[in-house]
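Incident log, structure service

09:12 report received: a user says their structure output differs between two submissions of the same chain.
09:20 pulled the input from the user's history:
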Amino acid sequence: MEEDNGTEPWHRSLQAMLDALNQTLHGAILRPSTLHNASTRASRDDNAYLYILFVMTLFAATVGSLILGYTRSRKVDKRSDPYHVYIKNRVSMI
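09:34 re-ran on a clean worker, output below:
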């Protein structure tokens, strides 16, 4: 009754790939020869996360200062605004 639709080899290869990824994520090393390369690379890239954090902090400070500068400039009442001049003249007439 059950038909084979040809997905069994695909499923097996996908499962093998997921198992290998799971072993890699949990710290199991598949090939012992990559142990030396991994330790060399890890020592070279130890401070990569600090660089990323530094760049993100600079970006956040830049964007924050732009937002604060824009919002504060919009709140300032300008004395030369025609609406304020009209209100001032109108109130003085009353």
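09:41 both user submissions now match this output. Likely a transient worker issue. Closing.
09:42 reviewer note: The mean pLDDT is 76. Residues 18 and 80 are 68 Å apart (CA to CA).
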